[in-house]
Amino acid sequence: MKKYNKEIKMKKMSICIIMLVMFLSVSFGQEKGKSGLGFEFHTFPSLFMGDVGTSLGVYFPFGSASLLIEPLIMYSSSSTEIDYDDFSSQDSETSESDYTLLIGIFIPKVKGKIRSYFGIRFGKQWHECDEDDDNTNYFNNSCGEDSDNLIIAPTVGAEYFISDNFSFGGEGMYTMITIEEEEEEYSITNKQNTLIPRFIVRFYF
What does CATH list as the number for 2-25+35-75+92-132+142-204? Predict the structure, then answer.
């Protein structure tokens, strides 16, 4: 069942990305603009060192003089394994992963080599948990249930253009996440608000 749900979630994410690319192609087809690729500044060591559990963010900016649209894709994963020296206890292992797709819509303001922008990022986060079916150590080794989380994040930032094709900058995201869990007799809604600073380098084509 979890494998089936994972396939459904990946298909939904793929459809969202395809629709977004089509929308951006139409939106900027009649207006001269730039597209590019961006990375969070702190993700570079993680890419080479392979830190488990570190969120990797990749940005896809599509900009014009009047509008900046920037999809953001993030992924993180972690695993926990418990091995007991006592053979009477059952070893167990869990793994969890998070897929996040956010769409940023911003109003840019250019002054010299600095472009500031403000707007909002919104989208969803898919959390998946896999654990041993025979895991009897629930409280010691459980990552919870699978969930789809809604994310809304007012954002303000700026970037400095070293050249026409390269920039670095930072932004602040006030992230509001709504987590809903459905049980047989009740439902739980958890809301988390976090201010997240980000440092980003972008390459434009």
Answer: 2.40.160.20
